[in-house]
Amino acid sequence: PEAVQQVAGHIGMVLRSTGRVKRGLGTIRQDVNVSIAGGARVEIKGVQELDLIAEVVRREVERQVALLAVRDALRERGARVDHTVVDVTALFSGTASAILKKAKSILAVRLYGFAGLVGREIQPGRRLGSEMSDYAKKCGVGGIFHTDELPAYGVTADEVACLREFVGAGENDAVVIVAATRQRAGCAAEQVMIRAEMALSGVPEETRKMLEEGSTAYMRPLPGAARMYPETDVFEVEIGAARWERIGVPELLTDRAERFVREFGLDEALARQVAFSERLPTFEKAVAAGVRPTTAARTLLATCRELARDGVAVGRVSEDELLALLSAVEAGRAAKEAIPDLIAELARTAGAGDGAPLDRVDAAIEKMAPAVSEADVEAIVHRIVAEREAFAREKGMGALGPLMGIVMQEIRGSVDGKVVSETLRRELKRLLA
């Protein structure tokens, strides 16, 4: 199952590497075909989430294994399907079951040797009876009742006993009942018998739909070979050597991540996050503009994600504004430490005017981080160290970290942390000399 998911992930990665496909749920149709030895090919439609593919395959294998076990048990019992539909409407004339009480017609099907197997679980939350119900629902009924689950749903033990006696069901037999209009109930009863016959053979070839958590339900029979034909009104297109040479093969996202490690010095985890991120184009534009790759990557991924988690509408900040902000930081007009506050300010003021991205970034820098000169930094550092001289002498250079936090809090990210650290280190050395 995990190998199937990995292959699907690789196919998706190759498609995304082209830069010409949409992303997100519903943008691509993924069908999963599963078969096991002794089972049958089953096509599962609508598997949209990559992370669920392994679980879908695992549960389908479990279902087929369980159905083969049911088949073997039925054969040992000499089970068979009595193709007789019995009208049992009168038996339930005084029933307390709301569903049966309002039904115009209640029909029963006797399944020889099926007792205990109709209610056997074949997938988490799914039983053989669920499979029969799926077939019956194609006739417009809401579902079925069967004696493996009764008494329940307002049906009493006495009513079950009368039902079994009326249709001639023995101890090892199961009885299925359907309630609806006469026409729909008759159609549903026929479908139940068809599915019961299939159970005697094992696993039917089907097209199924995925349910929540990875289980599946019947949709329709699997199309035959007649479905597999080429488009008759589309001519073949030959691709010659010259055209192959003109076709630009895109760099795979996995290869791009490896290149980011080699060229930019990103660690493998961060490089992969960038390569597979929707912000990849923004990252590449930022690096091309001279922004340090690590700064660009951490801002576009970690910082934006953390701000969004805190309720900041990061999506309101345009790509051009992010690029202008990163360029301003690289040019020394704003400190790296101010980036979160600046993005939050840009998000807060988005839509307030039609200013150009660069102008909006400059305004945010001016508001959030007033200019602090090198002399101002030295004065602030000198004052803070002097106020905490006893602490600094006790901790020595170990006081650097705690004091750094106090200084950065006061200057609010107006100066690059590296500059502050160097200034503070010099001041501590002077004090301790």
From TrEMBL:
It comes from the Archaea. Pfam families: GAD, GatB_N, GatB_Yqey. InterPro entries: Asn/Gln-tRNA_amidoTrfase_suB/E, Asn/Gln-tRNA_Trfase_suB/E_cat, Asn/Gln_amidotransferase, Asn/Gln_tRNA_amidoTrase-B-like, GAD-like_sf, GAD_dom, GatB_C_1, GatB_Yqey_C_2. It catalyses: L-glutamyl-tRNA(Gln) + L-glutamine + ATP + H2O = L-glutaminyl-tRNA(Gln) + L-glutamate + ADP + phosphate + H(+). Signal peptide: none annotated. Residues 281-428 form the Asn/Gln amidotransferase domain. Keywords: ATP-binding, Ligase, Nucleotide-binding, Protein biosynthesis, Transferase. The keyword Transferase applies. GO terms for biological process: glutaminyl-tRNAGln biosynthesis via transamidation; translation. The keyword Transferase applies. This is Glutamyl-tRNA(Gln) amidotransferase subunit E. It comes from Methanoculleus marisnigri.
